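User: hey, got a sec? need Phospholipid/glycerol acyltransferase folded
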Amino acid sequence: MSTSTPLPASTTPPARSRPRRDRSLAAMIWYRWIQAVVSLLWMVGAGVRASGRKEFPRTGPVLLISNHLSHLDVFMLGLLLPRPLNYVARSTLFVGPLAWLIRSVGGFPIQRDGMGAEGIKETLRRLRNGGIVTLFPEGTRSPNGELGPIKPGIVALATRIQAPIVAVGLAGTYEAWPRHRSWLRLHPVHIHYNPPIAPEELKKLTPEQILERLRAELLDAHARARAALSNLR
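Assistant: Yep! Here you go:
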C-alpha cells in the first residue's frame, strides 16, 4: 500500500463510547454467515487456529496490518475474531460480482499505487465509527511466501490515526492458494495477532523507525504463525 496523497491534517479521534455501526444489520448478518461457512469448511477440511486474541482490543478503532500471501487472507484474518473487519482492497478487484462480494464483507477500494483521497477518507471514517480497518502494507501478494518490502505510505497513516495498530501473521494461506496457482486447495492455517501498538509509541519515532518497527512486528507475527502451524499439521 502506498499513500502518496497527503492525509488530512486532523487525526482520527477515539471512537465514541457508543459508536455508530460501520455496517447495516443486514450486512452484519451476511458477514456472520460468510464467517460461519468459511470457518466450518476450513475447520473440518484442513484446520484453522489463532493465537494472541486475548490482547486484541474488544472495542474501539483498530488498524490491523498483515502479511499478504493469498486471496484467502481477507477471509482468514477475521475468521476467529468476534468483531467484523473492514478491508482495503485495490480498485482493480472491484469488477462484476467480485466487487459486490468484496463490498459485502466490508471491503472498499484504493488505487494500486496509493490510497488516494477517497480511500483515506473512508479509512478514517470507519475508524471514527469504532471499526477495524485491515491493510496489507506490502501492497500485493507475496510471490514466495515471505514478507516483502513494506510500502512507506503506511507511515503517514499510522502517525495520524489515534488508534492502536495490531500486526498479524498468516501462515498456510500461501500453500492453499498462492498467486501463481489458479485453483484453491485446503491447507491448515494459523493466524497470530501481536499485542496492540499504542499510538503514543509511534509518536516518539522517526518515519524510518516507524517503518522498521512495523516491519519487525509483521516479521515476528509471521514467524509465530509459522511455528504454530507446524504443530497444527
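Quick note: The domain at 25-232 is CATH 3.40.1130.10 (Glycerol-3-phosphate (1)-acyltransferase). Let me know if you need anything else on Phospholipid/glycerol acyltransferase.
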